[in-house]
Amino acid sequence: MTRSDRLRGLVHTLQTRRWLRAADLAEHFGVSRRTVYRDVQALYDAGIPIVALPGKGYRLDDAYVLPPLLLTLDEAEVVLLGTAGLADAADEPLRAAARSVREKVTAALPAEQRDALTHRTAGLRFVPIHTAAPPGEGAHLSVLRRAVEAGRAVRLTYRDRGAVATTCTVHPYGLIQQGGAWHLIGRDPTRQRVRSFRLAWMDEVAVLEDRFERPAGYRSALPDGPAPVTVQVLFDPDVADRVRVAPAFHPAETTPHPDGLLVTLKVPHEDAAIPWLLSWGAHVRVLEPAGLRHRLAREAARIIARYRTERTLL
User: In whole angstroms, what is the distance from residue 215 CA to residue 44 CA?
Assistant: First the structure.
């Protein structure tokens, strides 16, 4: 961090109007107390009204109004990278807001920093697991965001993993994107419990007139479900390196094995592991649970049957 960046950061840190000791500021910025003393004096000499009291530390004078927010090059890079990821994963209103923020941040930078930022961000980008949202997810996201903000109940027509459709009323508490998919977290007043619903599995969403109060202290998180299922699989040696750099979307541990690479997964249910395991073809063997091994064998048999009987143009 350059001294100019540190001085700017020092002003914004003191913006909290809390008393901060030199030792606290030195630890925060990774410098010595002597450097903090010099920086505070430099800011005071520049006209920044910093109040100092022995035993309490420093703070900004209450009457001081900060100038418009100034970002360091690293901070601007974080904003641009973060908004780029949001623009790939959100609905159109949030995408438009993300584009607007990017334009404002870029325009506010001096020309030299703007060129440096363009060079930096050209070589780095965060991409969601699924860049293309499932059909309908974007439209549902817009409707549900408005319901969450307004504290309005919604009626959902929702399909479970077995594709069975049900209709229920939900008090929407929040929205979470996890594992490349958007989830609605809300309370089902009929079942008297908090549930999660994948937006991609919703057929219809309607906002109701009924209002509700979100519990004080609520923090967005997927509710606890059943205990995770432990899956152990063995990969052939010739794909071990590829498995290490392309892990599953679920928590996994890898262990070297005489016959290849042993991978232990924690999945919410057996179905969650099937697509990833099938993608490795004959290079993977399920050790446990036995039920998953049988289900993969049945799925492979169905795939073989389809290609044996399906007519082609060849």
Answer: 45
Break the chain into its structural domains and give their ranges. Answer: 3-60, 73-121, 137-211, 229-309
The 10 Å CB-count burial string (b at 16+, else e) for 176-201 is: ebeeebbbbbbbeeeeeebbebbbbb
In three-state form (DSSP H/G/I as H, E/B as E, the rest C), the secondary structure along 58-79 is EEECCCCCCCCCCCCHHHHHHH
Q: Which CATH class is domain 229-309?
A: alpha beta
Query: Which numeric CATH code is attached to 137-211?
Result: 2.30.30.520
Predicted TM-score of the model (pTM):
0.52
Task: Give the Cα separation of 73 and 81 in Å (integer).
Answer: 12
- The residue length of the chain stands at 314
Q: Are 177 and 241 in contact (CB under 8 A)?
A: no
Instruction: Quote the pLDDT of residue 257.
Output: 92
Contact present, 270 and 263 (Cβ < 8 Å): no
Mean pLDDT by 10 residues, the chain (314 residues): 81 79 90 93 88 89 68 82 74 80 78 81 66 64 89 91 85 82 89 88 92 83 72 92 72 88 86 86 92 90 82 58
Torsion of the alpha carbons at 173, 176, 181 and 182, rounded to the nearest 10: 40
